[in-house]
């Protein structure tokens, strides 16, 4: 083998070593990034686990508020019905009382209604 061949062999060997080193470096970097992602994912899971109790408490409070609102709405509707019924009954009685006043006025000889006859 002549000197040129040896030179090309050395260059090829150096290139192979450089490629192997580059591949190893990239693999280490990838493993390090994956480990960092695992650590971050674990941290996020831990944070989510700690927040779960708070979320459950707020959900329970929301359910309770919703149930109270439903009960109050039903109570308010019942009170509105009572008020409408009482108003209607009062109007009926008012009409009856007014009719009695008018009748008394009509039959009273000393009242205005009696003089009109």
Write the layout of secondary structure elements.
Elements (H helix, E strand, L loop, with lengths): L2 H105 L4 H4 L2
Rough shape? rod-shaped
Largest sheet: none
> How many DSSP H or I helices?
2
Assembly state of the chains shown: single chain
Sequence stretches where pLDDT stays below 50 over 5 or more residues? none
* Measured distance between first and last alpha carbons: 153 Å
Structural class: mainly alpha
Computed CA radius of gyration, to the nearest angstrom: 48 Å
Strand proportion: under 5%
Assign a percent range to the helix content. over 70%
Number of DSSP strand runs: 0
Indicate the mean pLDDT.
92
Order of helices and strands: HH
Describe the structure.
The structure is a single chain. With 117 residues, this protein is an all-alpha fold. The chain has helices spanning 3-107, 112-115. The chain has a domain at 3-78. It contains two helices and no strands.
């Amino acid at each position: 083998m002549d000197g040129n061949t040896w030179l090309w062999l050395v260059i090829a060997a150096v290139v192979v070593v450089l490629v192997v080193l580059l591949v190893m470096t990239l693999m280490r970097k990838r493993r390090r990034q994956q480990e960092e992602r695992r650590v971050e994912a674990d941290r996020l899971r831990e944070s989510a686990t700690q927040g779960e109790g708070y979320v459950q408490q707020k959900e329970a409070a929301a359910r309770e508020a919703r149930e109270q609102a439903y009960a109050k709405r039903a109570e308010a509707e019942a009170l509105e019905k009572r008020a409408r019924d009482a108003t209607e009954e009062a109007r009926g009685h008012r009409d009856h009382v007014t009719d009695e006043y008018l009748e008394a006025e009509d039959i009273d000889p000393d009242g205005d209604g009696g003089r009109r006859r």
